[in-house]
Amino acid sequence: MGIVVVQLDQRMGARQIYEALREQILAGVFGRDGHLPSSRSLAQDLGVSRTTVTLAFEQLHAEGFIRMRQGARAQIAPTLGNQPEPKVSPPKPTTASLSAYGQRIAVVVGWRDQAEQTLVADFRHGDLTPSDFPATAWKRAINQAMDQRSQRLAYDDPRGSRRLRMALQGYLWRARTIRCDLAQVLIVNGSQQGLDLCARLLLETGDSFVIEDPCYAMARQIFGGTGAVAHAIPVDAEGIRSDRLDKFAARLAYVTPSHQFPLGSVMSVSRRHSLLQWAGRHGAYIVEDDYDSEFRYDINPVPPLYGLSDGGDVIYLGTVSKTLSPALRLGFLVVPVELADVFAKAKLLMDRHSPALEQEALATLIESGAYERHIRRVRRFNRDRREALLSALRRHFGGGIAIEGAEAGLHVTVRFPGLAAAQEAALITRARQHGLGLYPLSPLYQAPPDAAGGVGLVMGYSGLDPRRIERGVEILAGVVGSF
């Protein structure tokens, strides 16, 4: 392990080098039984004589921090390699020291510490099963991309790899009947960055935006972080209540029409047209989050809003987080022609461009047909997982629960009318004590949902095999029965 960079004056003495190395050794930087850099290389890095470094090493050796022998690099004493000194946390900044944006997100954005815990079954939505990942095809595509990229080390187009944008242009036409120009396609670091770009470019403090209720909480937080005001519109079996839209002259609407998150409804054609007409009347843009449209089981694919609008009022957002892996952080936007240039400029300022190797590898998968073959394969696997979950829930709970959104996607919503809403936190805590990861529905509402509905859970199944699903529901039945 190399030394952690420390800014040191070129004229520093052996004492300063000794103190810097001692601090790093105590902090565990070099690990147990690790080695320091050679005296020659460290002297070159710091711009001092080798004799100065040697004096520092000898002091560390005399105090028992390192072991030295002729012809070998100095080694950390085994009793010191993993004993960091107690760290004093710096004082936290007061809210007043933050920008207006910082003050808003400090209050609005929730943060969950994802501490490692071994669970019998974790029903967190969005997780995928590692064995589903096309590891062989991905490794081959990454190696091919590395061979190609080794010929050119330079910054890329902020809009993303031309190959990938062309591949996505074809895929979107085949899979979602979306026609667009290449300049309209923008590669982003997952859907989160896509939403952030929309928020930065389309909303100001005091503006209004429309959002489904309940909804994807991170979207509400991203848009609200701009200082814009959220108007939550209820969702029913046909999607967002479009009859309530004209009460608001909003700049932007965020919807998940193909599979509403989290309730799972599909927006009806009449509601889609009403939403587009509202956007036209108010000069608003609609952000269409098509996060898991590849996974449909009991219903036919529904054309996206983007196609109905000819792309004029709709920004289409897609991701590979549900098809390949959320760890890849690859998503894409299809923006109206008049916004293509400014979105590319904002992306340039934000991070120059998304990681190039992963983009080229994904382009290879799409071009070869491997990506669509992979989707068909994991769709079968997730159909089986869905059936395992539904079967287990019906077997253990019968008619005592209500299941919503099972026709598509990678999660279902389950309501327990027999549990009082006030018991929700206790249910989540007790379930985790029994090795079960459960996630409540209530935080996804802007206002607390009707308590008469009992406790609601969002149960993802794409990260579990059928055996774990069955065992998890068995545990859930026992936990619910204890109330």
Shape assignment: globular
Task: Please name the CATH architecture of the largest domain.
Answer: 3-Layer(aba) Sandwich
Name the CATH superfamily assignment of the largest domain.
Answer: Type I PLP-dependent aspartate aminotransferase-like (Major domain)
Report Rg: 27 Å
Separate helix tally? 15
Judged by helices, strands and strand pairing, the structural class is alpha/beta
Q: Can you write the helix and strand succession as a string?
A: HHHEEHEHHEHEHEEEHEHEEHHHEEHEEH
What is the CA–CA distance across the termini? 52 Å
Helix-residue proportion:
25-40%
Number of domains: 3
CATH class type of the largest domain = Alpha Beta
Number of strands: 15
Question: Can you describe this structure?
Answer:
This protein is α/β, with parallel strands linked by helices and 483 residues long. The chain has three domains: 14-76, Orthogonal Bundle (Arc Repressor Mutant, subunit A), CATH 1.10.10; 121-126 and 374-481, Aspartate Aminotransferase, domain 1 (Alpha-Beta Complex); 134-369, Type I PLP-dependent aspartate aminotransferase-like (Major domain) (Aspartate Aminotransferase, domain 2), CATH 3.40.640.10. 40% of the residues lie in helices and 13% in strands. It has 15 helices and 15 strands. It has helices at 14-26, 39-46, 50-62, 100-108, 135-149, 162-176, 190-202, 217-224, 269-282, 305-309, 340-351, 356-368, 370-397, 424-433, 466-481; strands spanning 66-67, 75-76, 121-122, 185-188, 208-213, 229-236, 239-240, 252-255, 285-289, 314-319, 331-334, 402-404, 411-416, 436-437, 455-460. The strands form four sheets. An eight-stranded mixed β-sheet has the order 4-11-10-9-8-5-6-7, with helices on both faces. It has a three-stranded antiparallel β-sheet with strand order 12-13-15, with no helix packed on it. A two-stranded antiparallel sheet has the order 1-2. It starts with 13 loop residues before the first helix and ends with a helix. The model is unreliable at 1-11 (pLDDT under 50). This is Aminotransferase class I/II-fold pyridoxal phosphate-dependent enzyme. Keywords: Aminotransferase, DNA-binding, Pyridoxal phosphate, Transcription, Transcription regulation, Transferase. Pfam families: Aminotran_1_2, GntR. Residues 11-79 form the HTH gntR-type domain.
